Amino acid sequence: MKSPRLPDPPEGLGERISRLRRRRRWTQRELAKRAGARAAQISRYERGGHEPRLDVLSRIARALDTTTDFLITGSEPAGDARFRTLVPRLEALPAVLRDGLAELLEGLLRSYQVVQPGSGAWKRQKARTAQAAKAPE
């Protein structure tokens, strides 16, 4: 008689770091270089012997293009992860580029709010479009 199979234990922080690193086909040394750490540290974190300080964890997350939330809990917080992983990279840009990007995004959001579905501007634009379609040429 077969004994019942026990569920796999939940994946820990070190296992998640290791899995994401291997998915990129990086060595521990490569991850360490990208995260500003030592390969021996990465090895200890992956084995579960030590937990990284918050600043090191943040650099590891950035190098692996994920969030510290995911590394710690195994789940992403609500929202679009693409934006959360972009923010640290955008913050690393020179100030003049960040300023230009912020202005561009603010303008885009203002434009969207003006013509957001359901808004008065949206309804007026929709009515004008429908009117134009009915008008004889």
Helix coverage percent of residues? 55-70%
**Total of helices:** 8
Question: How many β-strand runs?
Answer: 0
**Which segments are poorly predicted (pLDDT under 50) over 5 or more consecutive residues?**
none
Helix vs. strand class:
mainly alpha
Run of helices and strands: HHHHHHHH
Largest sheet: none
Rg from C-alpha positions?
24 Å
What percentage of amino acids are in beta strands?
Answer: under 5%
CATH class category name of the largest domain: Mainly Alpha
Walk me through this protein's architecture.
By secondary structure, the protein is an all-alpha fold. It has two domains: 13-76, lambda repressor-like DNA-binding domains (434 Repressor (Amino-terminal Domain), Orthogonal Bundle); 93-134. 66% of the residues lie in helices and 0% in strands. The chain has eight helices and no strands. The chain has helices at 13-23, 28-35, 39-47, 54-63, 68-73, 81-91, 95-114, 120-134. α1 (13-23) packs across α3 and α2 crosses α3. The N and C termini lie far apart (83 Å). The mean pLDDT is 83.
Layout: helices, strands, pairs:
Elements: H1 13-23, H2 28-35, H3 39-47, H4 54-63, H5 68-73, H6 81-91, H7 95-114, H8 120-134
Helix pairs in contact: 1-3, 2-3, 2-4
Note the main attributes of this structure.
2 domains; 8 helices; 137 residues; 66% helix; 434 Repressor (Amino-terminal Domain); mainly alpha
Write a compact overview of the structure shown.
By secondary structure, the chain is an all-alpha fold. The chain is built from eight helices and no strands. It is elongated and about 75 Å long.
